[in-house]
Amino acid sequence: MGVEVMLYLIFEKLSPFVPIFIICPLLSIMVALLCHWFRIKVMFGVCIALLLTLLFIANKISTLKANLDAWVLYGVIYALITYGVFKAVKLKTLPKKELQNSEHFAAPFRPGQ
Asked: Is residue 44 part of a domain?
Protein backbone atom coordinates (compact mmCIF):
# COMPACT_ATOMS: atom_id res chain seq x y z
CA MET A 1 0.00 0.00 0.00
CA GLY A 2 1.43 3.30 -1.07
CA VAL A 3 0.50 6.86 -0.40
CA GLU A 4 -2.41 7.72 -2.62
CA VAL A 5 -2.78 11.38 -3.49
CA MET A 6 -5.49 11.29 -6.12
CA LEU A 7 -8.27 13.79 -5.67
CA TYR A 8 -10.77 10.99 -6.21
CA LEU A 9 -10.02 9.89 -2.66
CA ILE A 10 -11.25 13.26 -1.40
CA PHE A 11 -14.33 13.25 -3.63
CA GLU A 12 -15.36 9.60 -3.60
CA LYS A 13 -18.52 9.86 -5.68
CA LEU A 14 -17.08 12.22 -8.27
CA SER A 15 -17.96 11.60 -11.90
CA PRO A 16 -14.83 11.19 -14.07
CA PHE A 17 -16.02 13.97 -16.37
CA VAL A 18 -16.11 16.62 -13.63
CA PRO A 19 -12.33 16.95 -13.20
CA ILE A 20 -11.67 16.73 -16.94
CA PHE A 21 -14.21 19.28 -18.12
CA ILE A 22 -14.78 21.50 -15.06
CA ILE A 23 -12.14 21.39 -12.33
CA CYS A 24 -8.93 21.31 -14.41
CA PRO A 25 -10.00 24.02 -16.91
CA LEU A 26 -10.99 26.25 -13.99
CA LEU A 27 -7.65 25.56 -12.31
CA SER A 28 -5.79 26.40 -15.52
CA ILE A 29 -7.70 29.69 -15.81
CA MET A 30 -6.82 30.47 -12.19
CA VAL A 31 -3.15 29.69 -12.87
CA ALA A 32 -3.16 32.11 -15.83
CA LEU A 33 -4.80 34.86 -13.79
CA LEU A 34 -2.37 34.38 -10.91
CA CYS A 35 0.59 34.50 -13.30
CA HIS A 36 -0.73 37.75 -14.72
CA TRP A 37 -1.49 39.38 -11.39
CA PHE A 38 1.82 38.40 -9.79
CA ARG A 39 3.75 39.16 -13.00
CA ILE A 40 5.12 35.65 -13.33
CA LYS A 41 6.22 34.45 -16.75
CA VAL A 42 3.57 32.57 -18.66
CA MET A 43 5.80 29.55 -19.22
CA PHE A 44 5.79 28.87 -15.48
CA GLY A 45 2.00 28.78 -15.57
CA VAL A 46 2.02 26.56 -18.65
CA CYS A 47 4.31 24.08 -16.85
CA ILE A 48 1.92 24.01 -13.90
CA ALA A 49 -1.02 23.45 -16.25
CA LEU A 50 0.77 20.51 -17.85
CA LEU A 51 0.88 18.86 -14.43
CA LEU A 52 -2.77 19.46 -13.50
CA THR A 53 -3.88 16.13 -14.91
CA LEU A 54 -1.54 14.33 -12.54
CA LEU A 55 -3.78 15.40 -9.66
CA PHE A 56 -6.32 12.90 -10.93
CA ILE A 57 -4.27 10.06 -12.43
CA ALA A 58 -1.10 9.91 -10.32
CA ASN A 59 -2.21 7.17 -7.98
CA LYS A 60 0.57 4.65 -8.46
CA ILE A 61 3.37 4.42 -10.98
CA SER A 62 1.50 1.68 -12.88
CA THR A 63 -1.57 3.94 -13.17
CA LEU A 64 0.60 6.77 -14.44
CA LYS A 65 2.21 4.51 -17.07
CA ALA A 66 -1.18 3.30 -18.25
CA ASN A 67 -2.56 6.84 -18.53
CA LEU A 68 0.50 8.58 -19.99
CA ASP A 69 -1.27 9.43 -23.24
CA ALA A 70 -4.21 10.98 -21.38
CA TRP A 71 -1.81 13.02 -19.25
CA VAL A 72 -0.07 14.42 -22.34
CA LEU A 73 -3.32 15.09 -24.20
CA TYR A 74 -5.14 16.83 -21.39
CA GLY A 75 -1.97 18.53 -20.14
CA VAL A 76 -1.45 20.18 -23.52
CA ILE A 77 -5.09 21.26 -23.64
CA TYR A 78 -4.88 22.82 -20.18
CA ALA A 79 -1.56 24.47 -21.11
CA LEU A 80 -3.20 26.03 -24.17
CA ILE A 81 -6.09 27.27 -22.03
CA THR A 82 -3.61 28.81 -19.59
CA TYR A 83 -1.62 30.47 -22.36
CA GLY A 84 -4.74 31.78 -24.10
CA VAL A 85 -6.23 33.26 -20.93
CA PHE A 86 -2.88 34.84 -20.00
CA LYS A 87 -2.57 36.50 -23.42
CA ALA A 88 -6.23 37.60 -23.41
CA VAL A 89 -5.89 39.21 -19.99
CA LYS A 90 -2.60 40.83 -20.98
CA LEU A 91 -4.14 42.20 -24.19
CA LYS A 92 -7.18 43.45 -22.28
CA THR A 93 -5.06 45.37 -19.77
CA LEU A 94 -2.79 47.14 -22.30
CA PRO A 95 -2.98 50.96 -22.28
CA LYS A 96 -4.90 52.49 -25.23
CA LYS A 97 -1.81 54.04 -26.82
CA GLU A 98 0.06 50.77 -26.70
CA LEU A 99 -3.01 48.94 -27.95
CA GLN A 100 -3.26 51.16 -31.03
CA ASN A 101 0.40 50.59 -31.88
CA SER A 102 0.13 46.84 -31.37
CA GLU A 103 0.66 44.57 -34.37
CA HIS A 104 -2.51 42.70 -33.37
CA PHE A 105 -4.60 45.67 -34.44
CA ALA A 106 -2.59 46.85 -37.43
CA ALA A 107 -4.57 48.23 -40.35
CA PRO A 108 -5.21 45.66 -43.05
CA PHE A 109 -3.02 45.81 -46.15
CA ARG A 110 -4.74 47.48 -49.07
CA PRO A 111 -3.21 47.15 -52.53
CA GLY A 112 -2.17 50.42 -54.10
CA GLN A 113 -1.13 52.13 -50.88
From this structure: yes
